Amino acid sequence: MIxxxxxSVKKLWIPIGIILVAxxxxxxxxxxxxxxxxxxETSSVPWEGGKWRxxxxxxxxxxxxxxxxxxxxxxxxxxxxxxxxxxRNGFLVLSTYFAPYQEGDGVSYQxxxxxxxxxxxxxGIAINEGALKGTDQKVLNSFPEESKNNTDLNKAAITVKxxxxxxxxLDWPEGQVPYGNNNIVSQMMESPxxxxxxxxxxxxxxxxxxxxxxxxASHLLSAMIQKRIGINLKEYAMEKLFGPLSxxxxxxxxxxxxxxxxxxxxxxxxxxxxxxxxxxxxxxxINGKQxxxxxxxxxxxxxxxxxxxxxxxxxxxxxxxxxxxxxFGQGIFVSxxxxxxxxxxxxxxDTDPMIETNKIFSRIKSAAVSEQALPVNAEGNQQMxxxxxxxxxxxxxxxxxxxxxxxxxxRTYMVKKTGLDFSAFTLNFxxxxxxxxxxxxEIIKRKDIGMEMHSL
Length: 456
Fold this sequence. Notes:
- Keywords: Hydrolase, Membrane, Transmembrane, Transmembrane helix.
- Pfam families: Beta-lactamase.
- GO terms for molecular function: hydrolase activity.
- With about 450 residues, the chain is of the alpha+beta class.
- It has two domains: about 60-390, DD-peptidase/beta-lactamase superfamily (Beta-lactamase), CATH 3.40.710; about 405-455, no CATH class.
- It has helices at about 1-30, 65-75, 115-130, 155, 160-165, 185-190, 195-200, 215-230, 235-240, 270-280, 295-300, 355-365, 380-390, 405-410; strands at about 80-90, 90-95, 110, 250, 265-270, 285, 290, 305, 310, 315-320, 320-325, 330-335, 340-345, 410-415, 420-430, 435-445, 450-455.
- Mean pLDDT is about 85; it is low at about 1-45 and about 445-455.
């Protein structure tokens, strides 16, 4: 019996020995491999304390020399970029502000139609919470009063998805007329009821059949959510989206009925725009909290080809990336595959801003060549820092402000609208730049002491 047991042990020893030799060989080989040198994550929130954690491009697998060349090209071509931020793996590797704009000045930027992408995110949250029934929910059911005279069967068939994908079928010639007084968006803004104005437009085709860019459709989404939850999209964002991301420095305009504009009117600082991009790159998860459902992130950034462009649920698409885009070159670009987020604020007028910002992003994406750290490139980093310095320096001296600017700076001005309705604002000038900061004031009427004014 003892001999039999020893024989069994001997048979087992041979394969165990082979496995041990293989393991020793693998460990020795692995020890010789280059070690991934990335800055260690110090927090599950990459902007702990309000500031993004930073790293060098090479530590996050990006060529700094190529980023330096991107910045140089932007300045040589006089592309009117205001800010350019790059985040990879949750680290801010480049933050460039072009004079007279300055990092940390606290000025929020009008992001225009980037607002639509934020509205899309909040729509997904509202659906997940049951405030909206789903993407197949009929739109007119939320507006019984506003739609009682709109009996078109095609209009009654419009769904939430049709609004999200810009396929409402409404006759809305926004893209055919330059933005200005003659554009339908301006007509909507000037109307006494923007929701009613949008719903009153005739149908040009059946919903869900053709792409037609429509800022009014995005506004309907905002109004639908407000009808259901009782607060506007600004307040909803503060609770459900901006709050978890520690976004506090923002403004969001409302229409005459107090509905947050769903298609425009949001102001953000670039660092907070990057937080939105990071959230999407991270499948809606931040600090262990699922802020946006991962399924919504996937569904809303699944693109359909439309008129030569790719479009999802109020997000545009590129080659293996997607982006939020606003007039004059505002953008939040996200490449989940490369864990890359790029933010731009701009005032591009002479060329197509979407083409220009996509060119810049494509070059940055191409510079992100490795998932592991690259060798230190002191020369490339120095070149990049020099381009950042040149960008932040005024190319010409800031002109002396006129005497009138000093006289009106800081004063409060009231504008009479109708009857006893007033609006108020202040303009604050600084001798450091020729840019004035506009502060809107809310007027609260009180019968006992007249009126109070508070900053918005």
